[in-house]
Amino acid sequence: AELPGLEAVAHLLNQSVSTLRRNLLREDTSFQAVMDRLRMQRSKELLAETELTIDDIADILGFSAPSVFSRAFKGWTGYPPSKYRLTIAMEAGGGASSRQ
Prior knowledge:
mainly alpha, 6 helices, disordered C terminus
């Protein structure tokens, strides 16, 4: 599964690519930065709320390989995805085994 690209998002917003870029620049960001934030947020949700594998999460979020996702996730959070998932489970008081 792939996330939409710049052109697709511009089309959905009824904007040209250049207008979308200008609007993002006006907000002091870029399309890539927005996508990275979305990927980070969604990856945290998927790790905390599902039992999907790292490979599945990498695929869902459009990473070319699980190792690329793992490096990106560690860059965002300071933890590899598996350690983040374990930490979240411990903080929740038992993790997946305590979920209904």
